Every structure is written in structure tokens, then in C-alpha cells.
Amino acid sequence: MRALLGVELPGYRTVDADAGLNDHGDVLSLHFFDLPPDLPAALGDGPALRHRLTHFTAPAVPRG
Q1: Which residues 6+ apart lie within 8 Å of 49 measured at CB?
Q2: CA nearest to 9, candidates 27, 33, 31
Q3: Is the pLDDT score of 2 beyond 60?
Q4: Is the pLDDT of residue 1 over 70?
């Protein structure tokens, strides 16, 4: 995983230059898109960014 040099990912083993796999079969892969990020607030406005991303992702989180 060349893009994550110096980052420890316990439990993951490298299976490709940009992909890792753990014993549960979970895959971690990195992809680059040459596009500006589609963020709901400016990076410099941490509180607004956290708030808006929380509301954006909340419907995707199962409750139970």
C-alpha cells in the first residue's frame, strides 16, 4: 500500500500496491480521482464540516 507509507494498519496485509486485506475478508483500497472534493463546507470550518457530514451520513447508519 504505497499511498499509506508510514501508516500502521494492524490486521491488514498487502495484496496489491494500493489494497490490503484482513482475516475477515475486509478489503481496504485506495483510489485517486482527479476532482475537487465535494464537501458540504469549507475545510477551514471544522464545526460546520463535521455537522453537515454527520447529517449527510446519518441516514446510512443502521439503527438497532
Answers
A1: 39, 40, 41, 42, 43
A2: 27
A3: no
A4: no
How far is Cα 39 from Cα 26, in angstroms, rounded to an integer?
A: 26
pLDDT in tens, 7-57: 778 899 988 888 889 999 999 988 888 998 889 999 999 999 999 999 888
SS3 at position 49: helix
Using the 8-state DSSP alphabet, how is residue 23 labeled?
T
* DSSP, res 10: T
**Largest Cα–Cα distance in the chain?**
38
